[in-house]
Amino acid sequence: MIGLVAGPEAGVLVARAQALAVLRIRSAALAVALLPAAAAAVLAAGIAMGRIPDGGAWSAARWAFTGAAVLALALAATVAAVVVRARPALSPTVPIAEEKAPDLYRLVRDLAERLEVPAPSALALTPDCDSWLEDRTHPAHGAPHGAANGPPGARRPRRRSTAAPVLVIGSPFLWWMRVAELRALLAPVVAGTGPSAHPDIAAARRFVRGLDAAVAVAAGRPALAFVGGVARLLLHSCRGHAAEMERGVAAAASERAQSVDYGLRIVAQEQVGLAYAGWDRLLNRVALPAWRMGRWPSRLDAGVVSALTELSRRDRLAEGFASRLGERPACDLLEEPGAIDEAASLLAARLFHGAPPDTGPDWLPVAWSQYPEEVVDRKWRLEAARLHRVLDVVDALPPLTPVLAAPAGMATAPTVARVLERLAGPAAGGLAEELGARLGAEVAREAAQEALTAQQRAFGAAATAEPWVDGLAPLFPLQPPRSGRELLADHVTAMVCCAAVDTAGAAPGLDWLDGPALLVGGARRPDLARTVLSLIEDGDDAPLRAWLGEVGVRPEKPVRLV
Fold first, then answer.
1. 381: closest CA among 290, 494, 493?
2. What would the pLDDT profile of 347-360 be if each residue is shown by its tens digit?
């Protein structure tokens, strides 16, 4: 029958069928819990009516089933209470009140009206390139922030809300996409509010989310081991049906959205891929160095526009995309785009770096105009200081591996000449390995200290902290640990950049795609990386010395490390 139905209704029928399968699993679990009580009731009724002899084995069986029924009902009630009351996890987002974005709310409501589906109950932003609907109708989600984890006497809503789900929009989309593109992109997402309103689908989703939340609540709590086991068993049983249900919902929403801006949606999907590439590069190469310096760029979404514009200029595959910038950007739908961008930027730092939730003396916002001085120059000098500390240790202590001995009487001033003398030559490979290992160890110690500070901050934070965000580690760490040679190359490059700034009139700069950059005469010098690799990997210092002479760097002059 489903195959004979065309359009979005076919997807809804598939989703409803799978939702009913999920609900049958719930009913089967309830039936298992009631089975001892049913057996006890049958025995009691049979004995009372004289159909079963009173006394002997039958009487013992009746009392045995009665005890089992009491135990089963108690355990079932406990499991049900935990499943119903457990707070499902929420995605960390930046809520947008309607008075802060009336035009955006109007766009979404007009879109819902064209699609003939309920409008989302609210809007929120996520610092990522994705958009989805999120059900926040659980009573705990309607409580004041943190009330769900508060004391037993705290007030909380007793009734489950029937509001439509919340529409979560990727913040980079608002700044990079045009208004028409955003509307086309959101059409399939908003269309999902129709299937979400179906009673069977909504009930099945609540059951699955409750099981998932119950598993999280029972984790690490021996007293709730039975509850966790039952929840995991039920979750495993209905996982396949739940996945098929969501596929049916997605298919129905996609089919319904075909009638709204379908041609423009193809262009918008191309922009999604471009936005994701620019966002990922901005976070890894621009935001991450700032976060490690205790600074958080407060206009990340505006920065992604600059990064993608630069990518459009450099990459022929992206040609034509920059011409769109003359059209109205979607961020114009916000009343205060700067404030929203700042909130999303801080949330991005918390998600991807495990940063503190609020600004403090060691965690300050930085504008893009201040980035070169506040982040790039400071990063270089900290890395140069670390390199010379490690060189001092290697020169003073027996090395872990055979390395080239330091020249007699060689000065230990922080100069590029010292680095060149120690790393140049065919016998310097062992020293490079030694320095890389020690740099890795020192970076690891500093990271451990930062983690300890974050842990102390987390335990010292208010009890209303959102557990998904204020953990002891970032939810989505950006970069894997770097190798010793990569660390050594970074530190030698930083040392050379400090010398260029101090002795050759160079300046720290920001490249939107590559992050920290050295500006010589106002232009980038990307050829420095190649010469540093020749020194570290081959012990050949000639390319770097030639580069220093061309730029006018004096390698014998000490550099400022602080």
1. 494
2. 999 888 887 877 88
Q: Under a CB-based contact definition with an 8 Å cutoff, are residues 532 and 424 in contact? A: no
Amino acid identity of 357? P
The residue assigned the tokens 């129709």 is 194
DSSP class of 293: T
> pLDDT tens digits, residue range 391-406?
988 887 654 445 455 5
Q: What span, in angstroms and rounded, lies between the C-alpha atoms of 528 and 496? A: 9
Cβ proximity of 415 and 555 under 8 Å: yes
User: Model confidence over 514-562: pLDDT tens digits?
Assistant: 999 999 998 998 889 999 999 999 999 999 999 999 999 999 999 998 7
Q: What is the pLDDT of residue 316?
A: 63
Q: Tokens 């009491």 belong to which residue?
A: 70
- For 396, left (φ over 0), alpha (ψ -120 to 50), or beta? alpha
DSSP string, 486-498: HHHHHHHHHHHHH
Q: Give the DSSP H or E segment for 190.
A: helix 179-191
The amino acid that residue 418 corresponds to is R
Taking residues 417-430, report their average pLDDT.
Answer: 85
DSSP count for the chain of H helices, then E strands: 19, 9
If phi over 0 gives left and psi between -120 and 50 gives alpha, with beta otherwise, what is residue 319?
beta
